[in-house]
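Q: What structure does this chain adopt?
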Amino acid sequence: MNFERVKLKTLHDKITDPESALQHFYDGAVVGSSGFTKAGDSKVILKALAKDAPRRPIGITLITGASLGHNTDGALAEAGVLKRRMPFQVDTVLRKKINAGEILFIDQNLGETSEMLTDGDIPDIDIAVIEAAFIAEDGGIVPTTSVGNSPIFAKHAKKIIIEINTAVHENVYGIHDIYQLEAYPDRKPIEILKPDDRIGDKAIYVDTSKIVAIVFSDIQDSPADIAEPDEKTTAIADHLIEFLSKEVKEGRLTKSLRPLQAGIGKVANAVMQGLGRGDFEHLTMYSEVLQDSAFDLIDLGKLDFASAASITVSEKCYERVFNNLDQYRDKIVLRPQSISNSPEVIRRLGIIGINTAIEFDIYGNVNSTHISGSQMMNGIGGSGDFARNTHLSIFVTQAASKGDTISHVLPMVSHVDHNEHNVDVVVTDQGYADLRGLAPRERAKLIIEHCAHPDYKADLLDYFNRACEKVGGQTPHLLEEAFAFHARLMKTKTMKKEGEEVLRDVH
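A:
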């Protein structure tokens, strides 16, 4: 047996195989698993649980930091093991079952899960599955490529199963800063005054008697799907750079901006890469996820320091970072998401938050989660944690997609995740609208003029003008037409009015 990674000798008798560890799972169990955007997730135990389902069918509630990799969510969903899931997912199989009503999904701000566990607002963790690089001699559990909710799961779990991942070198020790918040009313201030402040431990400490099994894996994280910037994402990045450069020129920001937060995905990654083209220097990040773009900016000498809850990168970037970790060690830190997404810290640092929208409307309300109002995509993630508390809350999306048949600027969003009060700037490939200090009617004109796709501008402006004339009010709407774009899409496969004319011609 491999004892090198389990340095606390009293735990050697807990080393076993995944199949044997499954004895601790049972129907109705609440399982907390490490993993944040495909990083540091369970590689073997949860997969073994799915494989074991035909022999021993059970249903569990699964709580994680964010999404899992290696199609684990899909395997659990397909096997019927997954009955309830929170707080975030990106799996296509799981998504279909959520939208079919077969699996209950609690879409939650990522900074709130640990709060609800601490306060007893949700059931406690029966079994925690935590990936680690090794267990130290003092019993400290050293995480791998994410921290996420692992500390709070380990703290509250009745039983803990550790997955030692030998694909991650032990030299990750030291890149983590594990700090856990006290319960109310005894909570203390979080003393992070700048992104590179460290306030916690280098490992997760628990009552080691709760560790009931230790298994091994040798599997890298699922690589992030990093698409090369295209014409639209490059245009979005350029417009954002234009806005930030204007803020610098007018003295509201310096060339170092303020600590940056960026969501995940190709748009966010392209936007961050775009900052490398701007006249910025000594940038910092206080975010949730470090994507390829963060390490590109570090290599360019543009980014001095980055704080997050996970590292989620492409295969090529993974090799670059973890084969040369000493080059990045003093420039990165991974924290629990209760700290990375803390409203207290976000507000104190004056963060610039850049998140992706599915759609936004002419008044600045943003939908981040639902397609056509009903179909869950992935989840709100941490965008709400940041949108409500940042110095600048910026949302980005393309103006139109699917051959420009779908407008992402609408009269009214089909689902609201971030209301107009928490949105400062919206950016598309057509331009940007700075909404700060503007009344709803002013916002509408600016958004239509600068952010809408040309094919939809006239329709949006006509809607707005008629709403002002016929209904009036602080935020004019024609309720019978507010979702006309969506209704048109469902009926004619395009949001363009021409689609109605085509359909009439066909019939």
